[in-house]
Amino acid sequence: MIYYFPSKIDLDNLNKASKIRPYEFSKNLHEEDVFIEGNSFSRVLKLYKCLFFYKGDKTIYIESNNFPFYLSEIRKLQLWFVFEILAFYIFKIKKFKIGLFYRDLFWRHIDFKPKKIKTYIRHLFFLIEWKYYCSIINVFFLPTKKIIELLPKNNKITKVLWVGLNVNFDEIISNNSNQITFLYIGGVLPPFYDLNPLFDIAKKTKKHQFIICTREKEWKHILKENIYDIGSNIDVVFKSYNEIPDLYKSMNTILIDPRKPKGYYSYSLPFKYLESVSYGAPVINFKGTAADDFFEKYNYSWSFETEEEIVSFINELKPSMLNEKQIIIKKTIATHKWKNRLNELKQIITNS
């Protein structure tokens, strides 16, 4: 398989799923596979080398960026992409099967549609790019089912491709503490990260400790503007991606994300959800989000309709209930390893 990533992997900035996924996939490729990344010129050279010398199976997997990719290349005056387009057409003529992973497309949701000229330009380039992709792609991979609603109608195969996991479960399963800590990781600035429900829940469950892990700059703004009524059982920490595992290893943890399923949030599946179960930490969230597609299927979470239901559950929660959920997670978590996810997408492309 040829794995094509239209950028350069920054090993010092692996803080988003869009950057973690190509990095982890590249580490799990088979010996005969080819990984293409880097700037526009180096990618073109590698693509044309594959056109003449590649002897592996006839499958190509392409990652995409959030924004119309070729628009960003034009902005950077990286016009080599014209030769990339030609190369993929030649691969198609040579009977290669091609899969494309399309990311969140958050800017196509009504929540992110300011009426500005640059927005219309972005959508125009997206439609041009979309028509091109539809002419060469056999199967589109999407992060969640609901993202299909943000795409133009088409007759292509669409498959949900969740990110893979580095399974770290055995590192924390020996934690025998009776104390359970509730952890939130992510943004804190309204309106898209409205944490008022979290603070309300914390006030009504004072015997438990809550930890918020967020960016220091955002939290300083919260304190300056006095946006939330912060209870005494809430701690705030600032951790890099590489430091987050320490939060899971040091305590019995449940990830909590009590944002209501409205707007674009209901379309997304945050990587932190998937990462949490790799450490044996189940999730508490509201029903109606795209995350339910994954977590209800594998029984990795507790989902609720109302804030009051969450409060009642937390107040009655016992360590044994957490342990039961951890046992469920441990039975199936290995199926989500990066190598398994890579093999899954290769099989889907081959059969498309």
Summarize the structure.
The chain is α/β, with parallel strands linked by helices and 352 residues long. 41% of the residues lie in helices and 15% in strands. The chain is built from 13 helices and 12 strands.
Q: Can you put this structure into words, describing what you see?
A:
The chain has 352 residues and is α/β, with parallel strands linked by helices. It folds into two domains: 2-164 and 338-351, Rossmann fold (3-Layer(aba) Sandwich), CATH 3.40.50; 169-335, Glycogen Phosphorylase B (Rossmann fold, 3-Layer(aba) Sandwich), CATH 3.40.50.2000. The protein has 13 helices and twelve strands. It has helices at 17-27, 40-53, 69-75, 81-93, 117-136, 196-204, 216-225, 245-249, 271-278, 291-298, 307-316, 319-332, 338-351; strands at 2-4, 34-36, 59-63, 97-101, 139-142, 157-160, 180-185, 209-213, 234-237, 252-257, 283-286, 301-304. The strands form two sheets. A six-stranded parallel beta sheet has the order 2-1-3-4-5-6, sandwiched between helices. A six-stranded parallel beta sheet has the order 9-8-7-10-11-12, with helices on both faces. β4, α5 and β5 (139-142) form a beta-alpha-beta unit. α2 runs parallel beside α4 and α6 (196-204) runs parallel beside α11 (307-316). It is globular.
